[in-house]
Amino acid sequence: MVLFINIEQALSIHEKTVQVSGGGSLGTINTGTLESVLEHIQNDDYYPTFEEKLTHLVYAVNRNHSFSDGNKRLSISLGVQFLNLNGYLYCLRRFIPEMENISYHLAAGLIEKELLQRILHSMIENERDFDEELKLEIYTIINQDLTYKD
Asked: What percent of the chain is predicted at pLDDT more than 70?
Protein backbone atom coordinates (compact mmCIF):
# COMPACT_ATOMS: atom_id res chain seq x y z
CA MET A 1 0.00 0.00 0.00
CA VAL A 2 1.43 3.35 -1.07
CA LEU A 3 1.07 6.32 1.27
CA PHE A 4 0.47 9.72 -0.34
CA ILE A 5 0.98 13.39 0.50
CA ASN A 6 -2.13 15.57 0.64
CA ILE A 7 -2.36 19.19 -0.43
CA GLU A 8 -2.24 20.57 3.12
CA GLN A 9 0.97 18.66 3.81
CA ALA A 10 2.45 19.79 0.49
CA LEU A 11 1.67 23.45 1.21
CA SER A 12 3.26 23.14 4.64
CA ILE A 13 6.32 21.43 3.13
CA HIS A 14 6.64 24.26 0.60
CA GLU A 15 6.60 26.90 3.32
CA LYS A 16 9.15 25.03 5.46
CA THR A 17 11.36 24.29 2.45
CA VAL A 18 11.54 27.94 1.41
CA GLN A 19 12.22 29.10 4.98
CA VAL A 20 14.91 26.51 5.71
CA SER A 21 16.68 26.69 2.36
CA GLY A 22 17.52 30.36 2.25
CA GLY A 23 14.21 32.08 1.81
CA GLY A 24 12.30 33.47 -1.08
CA SER A 25 8.72 34.28 -1.88
CA LEU A 26 5.88 32.15 -0.56
CA GLY A 27 3.55 33.51 -3.23
CA THR A 28 1.36 31.11 -5.12
CA ILE A 29 0.70 30.98 -8.84
CA ASN A 30 -1.68 28.02 -9.07
CA THR A 31 -1.84 25.47 -6.26
CA GLY A 32 -4.51 23.63 -8.26
CA THR A 33 -1.75 22.18 -10.42
CA LEU A 34 -0.01 20.87 -7.32
CA GLU A 35 -3.24 19.38 -6.00
CA SER A 36 -3.83 17.75 -9.38
CA VAL A 37 -0.38 16.12 -9.32
CA LEU A 38 -0.91 14.81 -5.80
CA GLU A 39 -4.24 13.28 -6.80
CA HIS A 40 -3.10 12.03 -10.18
CA ILE A 41 -0.23 9.91 -8.84
CA GLN A 42 -2.80 7.95 -6.82
CA ASN A 43 -4.29 6.57 -10.05
CA ASP A 44 -2.70 3.18 -10.66
CA ASP A 45 -3.97 3.15 -14.25
CA TYR A 46 -1.64 6.05 -15.06
CA TYR A 47 1.15 5.34 -12.59
CA PRO A 48 1.07 1.66 -11.57
CA THR A 49 4.46 1.54 -9.82
CA PHE A 50 5.95 3.54 -6.99
CA GLU A 51 8.79 4.55 -9.29
CA GLU A 52 6.36 6.00 -11.83
CA LYS A 53 4.45 7.84 -9.10
CA LEU A 54 7.66 9.33 -7.72
CA THR A 55 8.86 10.30 -11.19
CA HIS A 56 5.64 12.11 -12.02
CA LEU A 57 5.57 13.84 -8.63
CA VAL A 58 9.10 15.20 -8.95
CA TYR A 59 8.77 16.04 -12.65
CA ALA A 60 5.39 17.77 -12.46
CA VAL A 61 6.10 19.78 -9.30
CA ASN A 62 9.41 20.94 -10.74
CA ARG A 63 7.98 21.94 -14.12
CA ASN A 64 4.45 23.19 -13.30
CA HIS A 65 5.39 26.22 -11.18
CA SER A 66 2.61 26.23 -8.63
CA PHE A 67 4.56 28.82 -6.66
CA SER A 68 6.45 31.98 -7.49
CA ASP A 69 9.54 30.57 -5.78
CA GLY A 70 10.83 27.22 -4.55
CA ASN A 71 9.39 24.85 -7.15
CA LYS A 72 12.68 23.01 -7.73
CA ARG A 73 13.28 22.79 -3.99
CA LEU A 74 9.70 21.64 -3.42
CA SER A 75 10.05 18.86 -6.00
CA ILE A 76 13.01 17.54 -4.00
CA SER A 77 11.27 17.99 -0.62
CA LEU A 78 8.10 16.24 -1.76
CA GLY A 79 10.20 13.47 -3.29
CA VAL A 80 11.99 13.05 0.04
CA GLN A 81 8.70 12.98 1.93
CA PHE A 82 7.16 10.48 -0.51
CA LEU A 83 10.20 8.19 -0.25
CA ASN A 84 10.20 8.55 3.55
CA LEU A 85 6.47 7.81 3.92
CA ASN A 86 6.84 4.63 1.90
CA GLY A 87 9.92 3.18 3.59
CA TYR A 88 12.56 4.06 1.01
CA LEU A 89 14.84 5.62 3.61
CA TYR A 90 17.93 4.00 2.09
CA CYS A 91 17.45 6.24 -1.00
CA LEU A 92 17.58 9.55 0.82
CA ARG A 93 21.35 9.76 1.28
CA ARG A 94 21.75 9.65 -2.49
CA PHE A 95 18.47 11.26 -3.56
CA ILE A 96 18.99 14.63 -1.91
CA PRO A 97 22.43 15.57 -3.31
CA GLU A 98 21.80 14.01 -6.72
CA MET A 99 18.45 15.76 -7.12
CA GLU A 100 19.92 19.13 -6.20
CA ASN A 101 21.88 18.92 -9.46
CA ILE A 102 19.23 17.17 -11.53
CA SER A 103 16.39 19.54 -10.54
CA TYR A 104 18.10 22.53 -12.14
CA HIS A 105 18.42 20.77 -15.49
CA LEU A 106 14.93 19.36 -15.17
CA ALA A 107 13.50 22.86 -14.67
CA ALA A 108 15.50 24.11 -17.65
CA GLY A 109 13.80 21.49 -19.81
CA LEU A 110 17.00 19.57 -20.51
CA ILE A 111 16.03 16.43 -18.63
CA GLU A 112 12.89 14.75 -19.89
CA LYS A 113 10.59 12.56 -17.83
CA GLU A 114 11.92 9.28 -19.23
CA LEU A 115 15.49 10.17 -18.24
CA LEU A 116 14.32 11.31 -14.80
CA GLN A 117 12.67 7.93 -14.30
CA ARG A 118 15.91 6.15 -15.19
CA ILE A 119 17.76 8.33 -12.68
CA LEU A 120 15.21 7.62 -9.94
CA HIS A 121 15.21 3.91 -10.82
CA SER A 122 18.93 3.80 -10.06
CA MET A 123 18.31 5.32 -6.64
CA ILE A 124 15.34 3.10 -5.79
CA GLU A 125 17.33 0.03 -6.82
CA ASN A 126 20.01 1.21 -4.39
CA GLU A 127 22.71 1.20 -7.06
CA ARG A 128 25.94 2.73 -5.80
CA ASP A 129 26.14 5.02 -8.82
CA PHE A 130 24.58 5.51 -12.23
CA ASP A 131 25.66 3.06 -14.92
CA GLU A 132 28.11 4.39 -17.51
CA GLU A 133 25.44 4.92 -20.19
CA LEU A 134 23.27 6.97 -17.84
CA LYS A 135 26.27 8.98 -16.61
CA LEU A 136 27.22 9.79 -20.18
CA GLU A 137 23.68 10.87 -21.02
CA ILE A 138 23.48 13.15 -17.96
CA TYR A 139 26.96 14.55 -18.67
CA THR A 140 26.06 15.28 -22.29
CA ILE A 141 22.93 17.15 -21.23
CA ILE A 142 24.73 19.17 -18.57
CA ASN A 143 27.65 19.91 -20.91
CA GLN A 144 25.20 20.97 -23.62
CA ASP A 145 23.63 23.45 -21.18
CA LEU A 146 27.05 24.83 -20.18
CA THR A 147 28.12 25.13 -23.80
CA TYR A 148 24.94 27.02 -24.64
CA LYS A 149 25.61 29.55 -21.86
CA ASP A 150 29.17 30.31 -22.99
From this structure: 95
